[in-house]
Design goal:
This protein is of the alpha/beta class. 47% of the residues lie in helices and 14% in strands. It has an eight-stranded parallel β-barrel with strand order 1-2-3-4-5-6-7-8, surrounded by six helices. Helix 1 packs across helix 13. The termini are close together. Bound molecules: 1,3-dihydroxyacetonephosphate (13P). 1,3-dihydroxyacetonephosphate binds next to strand 8.
């Protein structure tokens, strides 16, 4: 939309959450591969984030068919190895060809008690292994009603990024995911998404300087659909989308990607 935006390549990510076993994931990624043309993905990056059990299968299909989609994970632990039953380590994901890891999704924070400290440690572990963290922040409905959205975003982004070197900050991805919009069908308006993403960019500027703030990509997530993609992507500070439910169907995800490319210029 503006000249400044040209420096940031949009990223559309499909977070499949706890949906699709590995056979369903194989079918979905094959379907997506057939639908996407080089022109569709020319203007942006795309990632899919299947459950851990599906990563190897999806990676094989992406590689075998040269599908221009990056592999992503939904979470990982902050340590490289050790007695942490049930957890998955960042180097394990790196070995599988994972490029992006969602860190601190609100569902991890809400249902699995992930703390700001764990988010900060995990995103650093992801960076150490050469992958890109997608660090999620977002306010609850109550916080929004109390007028505390910006304070919440400042607190979460600061806790996650404080002390991180400028180049590492510039290279990561942030996702603004208002909790009241996740899985509810209630999407933030373009204006709301812009105001929150611009605020987050301001926080990054305070923490890591203006250059890092200009470079960092900020996604919006929460009930994204093909119908609201153009409005969201038309905002100056919205550099991509983190899509949940609508990303489970390859046709719908492909439609979002096709809308997002031209709208994000
Ligand atoms: P929905 O798109 O289903 O609202 O989920 C958003 C989300 O949490 C993506 O990480």
């Amino acid at each position: 939309m503006t000249a400044a935006r040209h420096r940031r390549r949009p990223l559309v990510s499909g977070n499949w959450k706890m949906h699709h076993d590995h056979l369903q994931s194989i079918r979905t990624i094959q379907d997506l591969g057939l639908r996407l043309t080089a022109a569709d993905v020319g203007p942006l990056d795309v990632s899919v984030h299947p459950p851990f059990t599906d990563l190897r299968s999806v990676q094989t299909v992406l590689e075998d068919r040269a599908i221009p989609v990056a592999l992503g994970a939904q979470h990982c632990y902050s340590e490289d190895e050790g007695p942490f039953t049930g957890e998955v380590a960042p180097p394990m994901l790196a070995r599988l060809g994972v490029s992006y890891v969602i860190v601190g999704h609100s569902e991890r924070r809400q249902f699995f008690a992930m703390t700001d400290e764990q988010v900060a440690a995990t995103l650093r572990a992801v960076l150490r292994h050469g992958m890109t963290p997608i660090v999620c922040v977002g306010e609850t409905e109550e916080e929004r009603e109390m007028g505390e959205t910006e304070a919440r975003l400042t607190a979460q982004a600061t806790a996650a990024l404080k002390g991180l070197p400028e180049e590492q900050t510039a290279a990561l991805v942030l996702a603004y995911e208002p909790i009241w919009a996740i899985g509810t069908g209630a999407t933030a308006t373009g204006e709301d998404a812009e105001s929150a993403c611009a605020h987050i960019r301001g926080v990054v500027a305070e923490l890591a300087g203006a250059d890092a703030a200009q470079a960092v990509r900020i996604q919006y997530g929460g009930s994204v659909r093909p119908e609201n993609t153009a409005e969201l992507m038309g905002q100056r500070d919205v550099d991509g989308l983190l899509v949940g439910g609508a990303s489970l169907d390859a046709a719908v995800l492909a439609a979002i990607i096709r809308e997002a490319g031209p709208a994000g210029r």
